[in-house]
Write a structure and sequence with these properties.
about 260 residues; 11-stranded mixed β-sheet; 4 helices; Glucose Permease (Domain IIA); alpha+beta; about 30% strand; two-stranded antiparallel sheet; globular; single chain
């Protein structure tokens, strides 16, 4: 057999062996594969194209009406951060809750408002205090994000295990392994904020990836907020159970912008 024939035969054998290998057994030794390239089998994934969000397949219908489990104990909330306003030196599509009661320790449970899969996360330091940010996406096209979490649940600790070491002020997110999902009402963390600094709060943003929001219909506004979050953020105050929505609306706003919001009316 000629030398070229031997080489061709070897290539065929190698191709067949690789084709028969189980998932995850390829020849790339660069490290674990992230969820962007190895999605959960059969799951619908949402991807940002640079202008809009697209589903990898036909998404299931979202619940109608879309009502969220209230993620914190409203009895301990002292003021509301409204989504869609300038705050803290920048534009914030997310809102949140502040807890400034006397002797507040920040040992407050945060619950999942909607069943969803964990997609991205960050671990960082804020003035030396450890903070976590997590992003969750329901296959129907609803994303939510919590920032300034502490004392994570076992499921979130599993996702955080792949994150790089925490650095001061570096809250860039990283993909987490696919398939880690939470149910509505499930406890995500047992602590929040930066209690050592006396700054006890949690950020909560909700985004409807299925379509752009009303604010983005204004071309001048969109030109200033063309990112993956702002044009899709919603006023989550409108999606709480009626009793909780009334309580939240009755609480004072926090921050220089007060209750001004591009999403809440």
């Amino acid at each position: 057999m000629a030398k070229t024939d031997i080489l061709d035969a070897a290539r065929v054998v190698a191709f067949l062996l690789l084709s028969a290998a189980p998932p995850g057994c390829g020849g790339d030794d660069s490290g674990p594969t992230g969820p962007s390239s190895m999605p959960t089998p059969g799951a619908v994934r949402w991807m940002f194209t640079g202008e809009t969000w697209q589903a990898s397949g036909a998404p299931p219908a979202c619940p109608t009406p879309l009502v969220f489990t209230t993620p914190v104990d409203l009895a301990r909330v002292t003021s509301i951060l409204y989504p869609g306003q300038s705050r803290g030196g920048g534009y914030r599509p997310h809102g949140g809750f502040r807890f400034d009661g006397p002797g507040e320790s920040g040992s407050i449970a945060v619950m999942a408002p909607l069943a969803a899969e964990i997609t991205r996360a960050a671990r960082y330091l804020e003035r030396g205090e450890l903070q976590y940010l997590f992003e969750f996406v329901n296959a129907c096209g609803i994303m939510y994000r919590f920032d300034h979490l502490r004392n994570l649940s076992a499921r979130l600790q599993q996702a955080a295990a792949v994150l790089p070491a925490a650095n001061e002020g570096d809250s860039r997110t990283a993909d987490v392994p696919a398939g880690l999902a939470v149910t509505a009402g499930e406890t995500l963390a047992e602590g929040l904020g930066a209690p050592v600094a006396g700054n006890v709060f949690v950020d909560w943003g909700v985004y409807d990836l299925r379509s752009s929001n009303q604010a983005s219909m204004n071309g001048a506004w969109l030109a200033q907020h063309r990112d993956e979050f702002s044009p899709f953020a919603i006023c989550w105050l409108d999606n709480l159970a009626p009793g909780d929505a009334a309580v939240v609306r009755s609480l004072p706003p926090s921050g220089d912008s007060g209750s001004r919001s591009d999403y809440c009316h």
